[in-house]
Amino acid sequence: MRRWERALLVLEALCERGQAAGHGWTLDTELLPPRQQQVNALESQGLVELACREDRAELSVLEGRPVRWAARLTPYGRDTLAYGQSRPRAEPPPGEAAPDRQLVELIPSQMAALRVFVGLTGRLRVPPADGLAEQVRTGSCDHGIKRWRLYLTAEQMESVAYGLWLHRMTGSAAEANRFGREYGVVYSPARASDNSSAGGGAARGGAGVSG
Fold first, then answer.
1. If we measure between CA atoms, which residue out of 48, 51, 50 comes closest to residue 78?
2. Residue 107 burial by CB count (10 A; 0-12/13-18/19+): exposed, middle or buried?
3. pLDDT per residue as tens, the chain (211 positions)
4. Residue 78 to residues 5, 70, 81: CA-CA distances in angstroms?
5. Which class for 54: exposed (0-12), middle (13-18), buried (19 or more C-beta within 10 A)?
6. Nearest to 28, CA basis, from 72, 92, 73
7. What is the pTM of this model?
8. Cα torsion angle, 139, 142, 148, 149, sign
9. In what order do the strands lie in the sheet containing 70-73?
10. What are the CA-CA distances from residue 118 to residues 11, 49, 85, 159, 199 (Å)?
């Protein structure tokens, strides 16, 4: 589990317990010490507020016992939790990837070129394939290997090949060549002329890729 996912779990726990208590605070008896330490770490990020001496005194009166530790979400913590629970995710749960989609991992320069391509939707005579812009917008980055992960249909992969061909024609061939080597999808203007579409101009098998 990634660090931000663990942080969201902590924020969710604080939110649920604070709402159940009615006063918004999660008390020392409701979280084990290791989880309390995780909460303490989130305080430095401004996501959590720890109860001061006066707050603990008031909570002790309410609880009828000494309260030595309590925490609650700050407005920033609540916003982080709300966003984290609603953030777009391109990667489907394990085992639930659609059978017509393929996992594609792009290096940063390929992803940058693809963002330019989908950003030109509406200005291009051959626009990006349906759904490609959404995949680019919600793509997740594996920072360990510095790759952007997208799940694409065959049509979307052909559209990527076209976008990287445009990038190649205006400066850099490395991104299109790499895509051709790794996924065997290469855009060819000659095939496009024959088929009257960019999709028809993308061939699988790596033919036509140059170093």
1. 48
2. middle
3. 567 778 888 899 899 998 888 889 999 998 888 888 889 989 989 999 999 999 999 999 999 999 999 999 999 999 998 988 776 555 554 444 567 889 999 999 999 999 999 999 999 999 999 999 999 998 888 887 889 999 999 999 999 999 999 999 998 999 999 999 999 999 988 765 555 544 456 666 543 333 3
4. 15, 17, 5
5. exposed
6. 72
7. 0.52
8. negative
9. 26-27, 70-73, 48-50
10. 35, 42, 26, 10, 15
Listed residue (157, 92, 166, 86) closest to 126, CA to CA = 166
Query: 75 — phi, psi (to 5°)?
Result: -55, -35
Lookup: tokens for 41: 């770490």
Q: Are 167 and 182 in contact (CB under 8 A)?
A: no
Q: Determine the residue type at 153.
A: T
Name residue, tokens 């006066």.
54
Tokens in use for 3?
Answer: 């660090």
d(CA 26, CA 14): 6
